[in-house]
Design goal:
binds zinc ion, about 25% strand, 7-stranded mixed beta sheet, 2 domains
């Protein structure tokens, strides 16, 4: 039986709508009929060739919500018909120092959905039973999809920022106000923090959107901020924002770089780092992040703002993301 899928044959080319065999679940895998798949900036980096190790040909997409339609041998965790989420991390070795220490996100042998194995820009996909999440009640498939990467990576970055934020009333700067930031601001506001949103110059839509979601101030990175930041999270893939954010940070504060790819960071004076300021990155996610974040999202509750695209419009979704043509998150509906 064939299915429709959007396939990347070569980096820096458009995805092509193809008819390919429906993947069958191997041992410990579930087969899922894809109900929705979020579009992430990482998908752009894969399609544009900035992430250089994709399997080819590849079906991208790693924020998948779907219904289980077949169980491979030995699957006990899930039942037919259950709705599950499939994130970026699709496997890890389980035995290395990172996996044993709770850092499977850093495993050298980790595998990633929509990068080394086929993802969710298709009618069906398969995933290992241990790398799927339950989707909390109250979320439709398309509303839940952006939680699986934008939400999870934002949450992981936020946890790192919390180390230099006071318990409440901290000042958090979000550089880049897209899918991840629009979810994370809801967590930060729920925790009682003040949020400044920094967008591309002139992106009034994103600034208005940030203010609607509770940002105290919104502008662009060239402007003088109303207060010093206790922590900053950079979602935009622009290395020049690192010294900019350091400059806005108070002593002891931290800049968290949350993207998988960033342009080169320009040289900067040690003065910007002095005063025990720090810079760190966030890599991938652990299953524990998902098990913590998804129930938290439902309890706040976090609202996802989405723009939907049909499967065959996946290239348009990627182009619109590149150009910043929507606020919130894009979701492909097969
Ligand atoms: Zn490992
Ligand atoms: Zn992602």
């Amino acid at each position: 039986m064939p299915m429709r899928a959007m396939v990347l044959s070569q980096p820096s080319t458009a995805l092509q709508l193809q008819s390919v065999p429906i993947p069958q679940p191997g041992a410990a895998q579930v087969q899922v009929r894809v109900l929705a798949c979020g579009v992430c900036r990482t998908d752009l980096h894969v399609v544009d060739g900035e992430l250089t190790q994709p399997k080819l040909p590849l079906i991208p997409g790693h924020q998948i919500v779907g219904t289980i339609t077949a169980l491979g041998a030995g699957v006990e965790r899930w039942k037919m018909g259950q709705v599950v989420g499939i994130p970026w991390l699709s496997g890890s070795c389980g035995g290395c120092r990172y996996c044993r220490g709770g850092h499977e996100n850093l495993c050298d042998d980790a595998r990633y959905t929509g990068y080394q194995i086929d993802g969710g820009f298709a009618e069906y996909t398969v995933a290992h039973q241990d790398y799927c999440f339950a989707i909390p009640a109250g979320y439709s498939a398309e509303q839940a999809a952006p939680l699986l990467c934008a939400g999870l990576i934002g949450y992981r970055a936020y946890r790192m920022a919390l180390e230099t934020l006071p318990p409440a009333d901290g000042v958090l700067g979000l550089y880049g106000f897209g899918a991840a930031a629009h979810l994370l601001i809801q967590v930060a506001r729920h925790d009682g923090h003040r949020v400044f949103a920094l967008t591309r110059a002139g992106d009034i839509d994103a600034q208005q959107f940030a203010l609607q979601l509770g940002a105290e101030w919104a502008g662009d990175a060239t402007q003088v901020l109303p207060d010093q930041l206790d922590a900053a999270i950079i979602f935009a893939p622009a290395g020049e924002l690192v010294p900019t954010a350091l400059r806005a940070l108070r002593k002891g504060g931290r800049v968290v770089c949350a993207g998988i790819h960033m342009s080169d960071i320009p040289q900067f004076s040690y003065d910007l780092l002095w005063g025990e300021r720090s810079i760190c990155s966030v890599a991938n996610l652990t299953r524990r992040d998902g098990e913590e974040f998804l129930p938290l999202a439902a309890s706040i509750p976090i609202h996802t703002h989405i723009t939907t695209y049909a499967l065959e419009q996946a290239n348009r979704a990627l182009d619109d993301l590149r150009a910043g043509r929507f606020t919130g998150a894009a979701v492909v509906i097969p």
